[in-house]
Amino acid sequence: MAPTLLVLAAGMGSRYGGLKQTDPVGPSGETMLDYAVFDAVRAGFARVVFVVGRESEGAFRSSVASKYAGRIASGLVVQAVEDLPDGRVPPPGRIKPWGTGHAVWCARAAVTGPFAVANADDFYGASSYARLSGFLGRARGPSYAIVGFSLANTLSESGTVSRGVCRVEGDRLASIVEERAIARSDVGPGRRFSGTEIVSMNLWGFTPAVFEGLGAGLRAFLEERGRDAEAEFYLPVAVSDLVAAGRATVEVIASKDRWFGITYRGDRARAVAAIDDLVRRGSYPRRLFG
Fold this sequence. Notes:
Blueprint: E1 4-9, H1 32-42, E2 47-52, H2 57-63, E3 73-78, H3 100-105, E4 115-119, E5 122-123, H4 126-136, E6 143-150, E7 161-169, E8 172-182, E9 198-206, H5 209-225, H6 235-244, E10 249-254, E11 260-261, H7 267-280
Parallel strand pairs: 1-2, 1-4, 2-3, 6-10
Antiparallel strand pairs: 4-9, 5-11, 6-9, 7-8, 7-9
Helix pairs in contact: 1-4, 5-6
């Protein structure tokens, strides 16, 4: 079965100042999301499913999902704060959804075969999708994969970032620790990080078995932190917990592709320049679709 690409696009981009998933960065008006879909199609993915927030559902249907018609099958899932296991209800005052782990779990009815998870505002590179597609062609049961990137290559010039720092044993993930507020000044000899650490940028390969594991993790999270209006159920932490409990194995695919993303508005100019360089070198056409 050809894999599905599940794109996490529910964030409105509070630090960025707008709906960054629809902001053009390519020479013909392409978005970061367009490059993700283009790379997924040529890597053999047959379908893309977008996880969006309720407030951006209309914009995605009209300006994003429609452009891929005839190129790849697509679907849309709304990450709703009230979509919780066992009929649970969110606490009073809870408005924001429950994080990336919850976003993936919300797609449980829309994805029935092997699938990749990617952020809508990250550029992972063509070979990252190709290698993940190859893994998904042989994945069975609770056997998953993560595409990891070097920490030094994932920082922003415009502010701090959060990263899931991976501990790797052989080619397997042992654990992930979510580190917050990482600045460029924290990286280097004798500093908080060396820069060579492998980090999660939320590019994963899963089978549908992960939904059961995420559901169990979400229940435990809600018991412990469900009344915290700001608490989030992070996907890297959830998968790390499954590994620690012996409920999953995760192969680490170290990517040599150039990663870049848009967290802050100042990151956009660097993304535009990086894509322009890739286009000039022939890695992508000047117009992706059309």
